[in-house]
Amino acid sequence: MRWPEGKSFAFTVFDDTDLSRPGNYEPVYELLHERGMRTTKSVWPATGAGTEARSAEGSTCDDPEYLKYVLGLQARGFEIGYHNSYHTGLHRTQIAQALDRFRSLFGHDPDSMSNHAMSLEGIYWGEARLSPPLSTAYRHIWARNRACVHQGHWENSPYFWGDLCKQRIRYVRNFVFGKTDTLAACPWMPYHDAARPYVNAWFAASHAQHCSHFLDVLSERNQDALEASGGACIVYTHFAADFVDGRGQLHPKARALIERLSRKNGWFVPVRELLDHIVAQRGLVELSAAARTSLEWRWLAHKVLVGAG
Length: 309
Known about the structure:
Blueprint: E1 9-15, H1 26-34, E2 40-43, E3 54-55, E4 58-59, H2 64-75, E5 79-82, H3 92-106, E6 112-113, H4 134-141, H5 162-168, E7 171-177, H6 182-185, E8 191-192, E9 202-208, H7 211-217, H8 220-229, E10 232-237, H9 252-262, E11 266-268, H10 271-282, E12 285-286, H11 289-306
Parallel strand pairs: 1-2, 1-10, 1-11, 2-5, 6-7, 7-9, 8-12, 9-10
Antiparallel strand pairs: 3-4
């Protein structure tokens, strides 16, 4: 893969909005902006009955202080992504309203999104990420999650919005892996999966659920290996999960690693821009059955080991 401007590798972050509230995530973005590293921050845009602007789950776009900062990020070149309409999942009418609100706030439909683990409107999520017999194995291993059966792709469900996803969202995150070079872990991304037709294109990510995982993924050794490989890293993390302490200070090791990475010859752009560049070079891959099997087995093994993603 050739990166623009003679850059050696590509790097970005998809920041899951879980837990994000004013005061617990902003220092990460201030550092990223200072270092010229544009990434992607997701939001919950739902509003109206049954939704809370700020809760233990995090803030939505109804939180004025939160929304003001997010709009400021967009003005500085960061991408705003989608994380389902709301953390509990909403019915189709409210999902459509949330997508409309996203467009009214940010000027366009979401270019990238990730499903929320406990949202009933998740599309091809939970066991639906996998093909038989792995889907059956997943169902038995994580039986405790049966209270949240993702129904966004079920046409007879009140949570169905697959057609809206197809019409309005470009890229959806799927499998995560332990490798820092995401493109090496999933060389087909972004790809279309004919078995899951309501999603236009899927992308993978490097697992960094919390700050401690982020420190591992972006260790000095892994940074150097990414640069040497000429690959691409899309970190999936939660900047509200232990990156910032109670005094509003960014974790010193996270700061040092971000600063170190920023000094390398990397292309630091949001998720949509990175994926568009790959598509422009080689087109959108139609995932083969063999490739799908490889991804599913490797992801399930990773999930069994780390329990997340």
